[in-house]
Amino acid sequence: MITKFMQNTLERIVTKVQSGLLAAGLLLTMFTATAQTRDYGDAPNSYATTTAGSGPSHLPVAYNAVAKTAALMLGSRIDLEADGIPGTLATGDDTDDMDDEDAITRFPLLIPGATSYSVTLTVTNTTGTAATVTGWIDFNKSGTFEAGEFATATVASGATTVTLSWSGFPAVANFGYIYARFRIAANAAEIALPTGAASTGEVEDHRFFIGRPVSGTVFNDLDRNTRINAGTETFTALPAPLYVYTVNGGAIVDSAHVAANGAYALRAPAGLGSTIELSTVQYPIGYVINASNIIDHTPPAGWVTTGENVSGTNTGNGDLSPDGILSVSLPNGTTSLAGRNFGITCKRAGTNSSADICASETSVMLLLGFLPDADNGGTWSQLTGSGINFNAAAGTIQLTSTATTSTYQYTMPGTTDCAPSSSVVTIVVRAIPVHYQSITICEGQSVCITNPGGSSRILQAAETVCYTTSGVYSDTLVGAGQYGCDSIVVTTLTVVPPPALTVTHASCTGVGSIAITSPTGAGYTYSINNITYQSTPEFKNLLPGTYTVYVKNSAASCVTSASATILTTTCTSLPVSMTSFDAYKKGNTVALTWTTATEQNNKGFVVERSADGISWKTIGTVNSQAINGNSNTKLEYSYTDKLPVTGNNFYRLKQIDFDSRTVYSQAQLVTWSNGHNISVYPNPVTYELTIEGAELKGSHVRIFNAMGQQLHLVTVQSNDNFVRINVSKLTGGVYYITVTDNNNKVITNQKFFKK
Description:
Elements: H1 4-18, H2 24-30, E1 39-40, E2 57-58, E3 72-74, E4 116-125, E5 131-137, E6 150-155, E7 161-167, E8 176-185, E9 197-198, E10 202-210, E11 212-220, E12 243-248, E13 251-257, E14 263-268, E15 273-279, E16 303-309, E17 325-329, E18 341-346, E19 353-358, E20 365-366, E21 379-384, E22 388-391, E23 396-399, E24 406-412, E25 421-430, E26 434-442, E27 447-450, E28 457-459, E29 464-467, E30 471-477, E31 487-496, E32 502-507, E33 512-518, E34 524-528, E35 538-542, E36 545-553, E37 558-566, E38 576-586, E39 589-599, E40 602-610, E41 617-623, E42 635-641, E43 647-657, E44 662-664, E45 668-672, E46 679-681, E47 688-692, E48 700-705, E49 710-715, E50 722-726, E51 733-740, E52 746-754
Parallel strand pairs: 2-9, 11-18, 19-25, 26-31, 28-30
Antiparallel strand pairs: 1-2, 3-4, 4-7, 5-6, 5-8, 8-10, 11-14, 12-13, 12-15, 15-17, 16-18, 20-23, 21-24, 22-23, 24-25, 27-29, 30-31, 32-33, 33-35, 34-36, 36-37, 38-39, 39-42, 40-41, 40-43, 43-44, 43-45, 46-47, 47-50, 48-49, 48-51, 51-52
């Protein structure tokens, strides 16, 4: 084992031997062959690197162990080893924590398919005589140096560079790492092969990357649009040294030092995706990237990364991720990529801004969040205001119950290359709006408060609360007010019971009348079968039958209903005994059908239509089928209204005697809408209600009473276009049919009357 003292003594003796001051034979008798007196290679051992494999070695001339120099060497430094140290990175012989493989800083571009190549080496020759340099590059990546991969040149005494050139070798293998070996010696015969010992000089093994060129610019992106603005955003001097790396397969495969004007050029593999990454830190080629080893993309002090651009100068947009990383891909056949640019610029404090903050906000807020165009790294100070907890170090605020409008200044310090800047954020504290409302509803109804975005409660966005009893309610609607603040709705609710209803009815020759005796007077309106409300409390010329009478409190819209029947027992016989009268949609028309059991002195029927149940007009006539107007058998009649109006269509029959007496039937309603084609008939209905139409397929049919309570639900099969519902058990009155699709969208909403 050689101690440090022995090693230092050895180095002094070797220097004297090389200077002719001590006989070499004496040296060999003093130390064994394991002393570090020679220079070895460090390529993988398939290239014959170790002594056991006859690897290359050199005895330096006039070696200076302190300065690590010799009179004949590659580059400007040399260190010594005890043997070759093979390794994948070809850096194993750096035993003195120095890189003595300094003849080449960066290999010229070598692309797949090339058959010629040149490399210029830096050399040192102060021996006073010429020397020789030889080199091998494993162009075909076979793992050995072959005869066709050899080049040589003479190095004159005093020369500092030498160029080796290759030509006529087989086409360069596809992208990836390849190895090179260079040797310099005074005796050319000693270095005619990549192996064996030489009595002078040095050997260097290198690994470098075959790829295709990628170039671009690091520019001063003043307007932060990730594009170079010609003539205004290029550098003349960088704020700090910058480096660009090609990363592939989890390691750096090539690197470039960014020029003073921001330009760079390096290599990337064809046929694979890689990343081009910007850094202020210099890393070696082969640097493995993992969780503990990463590339530092921090821009120079006082600067910020603004993005990357893949489209070239003055065109395209950035990759929207300002992180100093740019993805690139060279498909097979692509010879090069240009205009792969990086943007950096001075940090800035942004522009003045204002923010509306709700007085109810209690969270800790980051002030920088109110400056979307500002960069991190500045300092905060408060200018005006009170009632806000301000943390200058963290750059945060938190409102208190006494918060007032406040202003804060953000200051970005300057650097050698960047001027200082500042901006002001104004925090405007907004009060919670309160809305008061007084609502009157009828008993059985409800009023609902919905947060669009109960006693006191908080409603989140889209939440609803309903009230049915009288009282005062305060509801906080979260985020529903102006500026996105909470708002408060205070509701004073009055519930009005429906009016009591007293009805009398009378019969006379063939027709009857119904009178509402209580309540009457101003503020009330009246209706039979809920068709049309009128101000008078009496209905005349009614055929015998059962009717539902409604009275409405106009101020509160409260409705009460009662049943009334027109009897026939005390009436003289009617000229026509009508057993049915129906009206329903049929295609684009309305079909009217009616049936008589007996007729006496009947001339015929006049068909009348009304849009409001008050004003009527004749739309057709139908003659009696009875002989001489008299019949004791069932007779059936029909009429088609080919031009119904949009909205309500009320129909009634006026029966006319030969002696000009007239009697009116009950009215039938058909609601017509151009938005759908669904018919509901007969209307009024006694036993079975039919709903028909193409849009009915796969829908849901619901029946509601006048209070909005669901009484019936039918789901229609997807291949059916009609449904029949037995309504015989419903009490007389008004009801509603609602048809919805599978998305709960209303197709139609129609009214019908149960006799």
